[in-house]
Amino acid sequence: RSITNYKHFMIMCLIYFFCDFETHSSLAKKPPDVTKSRRLKTEQLLKVDDHDFTMRPAFGGPAIPVGVDVQVESLDSISEVDMDFTMTLYLRHYWKDERLSFTSTTNKSMTFDGRLVKKIWVPDVFFVHSKRSFIHDTTTENIMLRVFPDGHVLYSLRVTVTAACNMDFSRFPLDSQTCTLELESYAYTDEDLMLYWKSGDESLSIDEKISLSQFLIQKFHTTSRLAFYSSTGWYNRLYINFTLRRHIFFFLLQTYFPATLMVMLSWVSFWIDRRAVPARVSLGITTVLTMSTIITGVNASMPRVSYIKAVDIYLWVSFVFVFLSVLEYAAVNYLTTVQERRERKLRDRAVREQSLPCTCGMSHTRTMMLDGTYSEADTNSLAGYTEAPMVLEDMMPEKQEHMVVHLSMSSESTTTKKKGIRALRIMQNTHAIDKYSRMIFPGAYIIFNLIYWSVYC
């Protein structure tokens, strides 16, 4: 039994020995935890404390080339009132600083966050004509620094910038706007720092999902040139140019269609009876006030520019058409009043003449019977006759409601009378003014629309 126990003990010892050997072998093959010595290794490799990084690389020598590329993440907003735009982008810089070179058997780069950026030299690129800008810091600062063994450096950061854009609203809202984001070194002239696009036009990339509610993005492209300041000198400046075309459908629904409908509504008064004063006046005032509200609403969302915009031309011409329809009824009402006053005078004169019979004796006399009811043509036919001394005649009692008037007129006066009546017929017949307005107003407005849309589209 003791021999058996001894054998079991020896077997257990051998098993434990082999297991312990395998464990130590695997631990020996596992790579060491380099994070425990990263601080010491970084200081040794990059030699941050051994150099003065307040000075640019190769100070005193030729200008250091700094390549730039940009990836546009989003185009957040375009403001016509403030004349600016807001863009979020990834800005990347490429340069070589031999002071950061290190030896590496694997030739792998080292990546750091924004804490190391404060200890080394980086390009001082800023956005020209920017109003506001910031580096995103959620959850940490969106800054990346990558250093290669030969000293090449990649410096990337995520920025949102609001920059000015000189917009021309002379064709608004049928316009296209070209905005520019400009990058430049703040302190280093072209003799110290050469800023350039790293891969030409391919240095600018945009997200295909970028879209705007009011604009269609037509084109993105890059350019570069020198900028001169009288006090400091020449600087390399990079440009990100993009062209935006405005969507017209929103303004058709909100501005053009309502204005057109108000103009058409003002034409309804031409079919309303001229004696319906409250209906025609209220309709004209309503359309005028509505047009004023539309014009005020459009100008409230636009900058106060000193030139005329395309939408102003359309709205103000529409306003003039609405206003002229009100003036048209004012003219109709005035001529109607004048005509009724003239008819009233003729009626009163006829009534007075009925009380006393008279004869007006001249050559080529003709007799005409008039009673209390007469037409406008009958009264107009009295024009051109001259009165003669009246002669009283005896009349029968049953004929007292009539009077006999002896009138005479030469052939020449008859021709002149007919021409005068024909010339004044349109002015006296106020229905003719409304009739012509029904054709002139729509025709003129259609011609205006054809010219307007052919010019601006």
TrEMBL record:
Residue ranges crossing the lipid bilayer per the database entry: 248-269, 281-301, 313-335, 436-455
InterPro entries referenced in this protein's UniProt entry, alphabetically: GABAA/Glycine_rcpt, Neur_chan_lig-bd, Neur_chan_lig-bd_sf, Neur_channel, Neuro-gated_channel_TM_sf, Neuro_actylchol_rec, Neurotrans-gated_channel_TM, Neurotransmitter_ion_chnl_CS
GO molecular function: chloride channel activity; extracellular ligand-gated monoatomic ion channel activity; transmembrane signaling receptor activity
Coarse class of the protein's main subcellular location: membrane
Keywords in alphabetical order: Cell membrane, Chloride, Chloride channel, Disulfide bond, Glycoprotein, Ion channel, Ion transport, Membrane, Postsynaptic cell membrane, Signal, Synapse, Transmembrane, Transmembrane helix, Transport
Top-level division of the source organism's lineage: Eukaryota
GO cellular component: chloride channel complex; postsynaptic membrane
One Pfam entry name: Neur_chan_LBD
Catalytic activity: chloride(in) = chloride(out)
Cleavable signal peptide: 1-28
Membrane-topology annotation of the record: Multi-pass membrane protein
UniProt-annotated location(s): Postsynaptic cell membrane
Domain Neurotransmitter-gated ion-channel transmembrane: 255-393
Domain Neurotransmitter-gated ion-channel ligand-binding, residue spans: 45-247
Protein family (similarity comment): Belongs to the ligand-gated ion channel (TC 1.A.9) family.
Annotated protein name in UniProt: GABA(C) receptor
